[in-house]
């Protein structure tokens, strides 16, 4: 009889967990994955990345039809109506297809799905739905959940004060949606409902949107969202939300303190961030304590302080991004199997899937300057406007730019930031460039297909030597 039931047990079937389980099984390890949802895929596939992209895409199509964009191409339509129920259903169809796909991959790779939430008994065993299961290696991949706003109660079923899960499932378009938080989730979901007809107000505590992104991108984001019709209340904090019937009254005041005012809304989205899921795991039973931010600390190989217990994804430090978790899932499985699994955390692209998209990888200009000791002469920066890109111009997508930041001494690319309709796809080339230690000259002298949006990256790289062609 085997000493353990499994070689590897993964707790959580989100992008990190399900990928770790599949990779471990591919490497010949007897693998199980514990998850209590009705479907696999975690937050990302069920109530995050995938359903939000389905609604973003659908709402873009609706706005194009309504605001005359079709007509400018010579496409005449009759009166345009929103069928929200059908739009929501196509979202659910996408989710069902993809979550079902993971279940198929589990069967194909002989990964056992243990249906239930796991809690540690000791370092090599957990209880799942009343059953004790043991494994030589246990990987914590429990992800994250919405950070609550103190004093504000979310009730997704009522549909007045909602989190991202509730905002994805609204059955009617709000007259006035107030988004608390000017980060990725708030701006994406705010964009969906604005396109479908809601008045949208974004309340952000900081003086700019999109914390963590390059300064130029953040400034341009405010201009673009204002132009699209969003009201922005920056440097503003929410001190309370009162619900009466189907309406909410928010009390807000300047972040630095000052006179309070109220905002009336019929839907409020709380989108102030996410926090690691560690509750109910029984970490105390194995002597593993989260850090001050609630995260589980690991070493470079994703080992925790407890032998045989590993952790990846949103539950450990670093950006809370599905693709970061996926890469860590592959790496941890390879490390467990005795191979070398590495994730370069300096090259994790970030994307905001609004229209246009905002994307970046590597250092911001501010971070690059700080790393250079504040010496501006040590870095070179070049920006190329999408207005000068033939494909963007032809597609009537003039907003945005591509920005390349390079080391002035050795020309190595330090960071790339982009605002463009397909910035999220364009950024992959930049990530590859950073991964291979490319110089701006490498990008500038690489032939890019014409006409494509990606030529803007080539031109921005040419600009490091002050020789772009089309500006």
Helix content: 25-40%
Task: Give the total of beta strands.
Answer: 22
Main beta sheet, described? 7 strands, mixed
| Multimeric state | single chain
Look at the helices and sheets and give the structural class: alpha/beta
Question: Could you characterize what this model shows?
Answer:
The chain has 471 residues and is of the alpha/beta class. The strands form 5 sheets. Strands 1, 2, 3, 4, 5, 6 and 17 form a 7-stranded mixed beta sheet that branches. Strands 8-15-9-10-11 form a 5-stranded parallel beta sheet. A 5-stranded antiparallel beta sheet has the order 18-19-22-21-20, with helices on both faces. The protein has 14 helices and 22 strands. α1 packs parallel to α9, α3 packs antiparallel against α5 and α3 runs parallel beside α7 (184-195). The mean pLDDT is 97. The chain has helices at 15-26, 42-47, 49-66, 69-72, 84-108, 164-167, 184-195, 215-227, 322-336, 365-371, 390-394, 423-435, 440-444, 455-463, and strands at residues 6-11, 31-35, 112-115, 118-122, 125-128, 131-140, 144-146, 161-162, 176-180, 199-203, 231-233, 236-244, 247-254, 261-265, 267-270, 274-276, 309-311, 350-352, 357-362, 379-385, 401-407, 413-420.
